[in-house]
Specification:
137 residues; mainly beta; Thrombin, subunit H; globular
């Protein structure tokens, strides 16, 4: 990871201040994308997944090793916005297929079902506080 010059954050909503350490420098974990967006962090797998839309690929940063890998590319999906549902399945919007997809996961090594639900509930609770509309149906 490469530290980036720590420019002050522009805080437009004071609730944001609770979610970020404004005195910590921003770190660049990867370069090489044309237009990246839709990041989602998976606590169960300790990784960050995001999209490089024009290159039609999904990338995964491993928190333990710091490595970045192409995990899906060339399928014509052009995936952007992603989130985890309450069962840790990834839900994403795809421009290329004009669809919303859900990726199933077979197991979550090292976490009990109760721990996994607690992690997911935390993510959803924090998002509601930031104003994302994900109210249970």
């Amino acid at each position: 990871m490469v530290p980036i010059v720590n420019e002050p954050y522009e805080i437009r909503d004071e609730r944001f201040r609770r979610s970020v350490k404004v005195d910590e420098p921003i770190e660049q974990i990867w370069t090489g994308g044309r237009w990246t967006e839709g990041p989602v962090y998976s606590p169960a797998f300790r990784c960050l997944i995001w999209s490089d839309i024009p290159n039609d690929r999904r990338l995964r940063w491993d928190e333990l090793t710091g490595s970045v890998a192409d995990i899906r590319s060339g399928l014509g999906c052009y995936t952007n916005g992603s989130t985890l549902d309450r069962e840790a399945r990834m839900v994403a919007c795809e421009h290329g297929t004009r669809s919303v997809t859900r990726t199933e996961t077979a197991e979550h090594p090292g976490l009990t079902a109760e721990q996994l639900r607690a992690e997911i509930e935390l993510v959803h609770r924090e998002r509601r506080e930031l104003g994302v509309d994900d109210q249970p149906s």
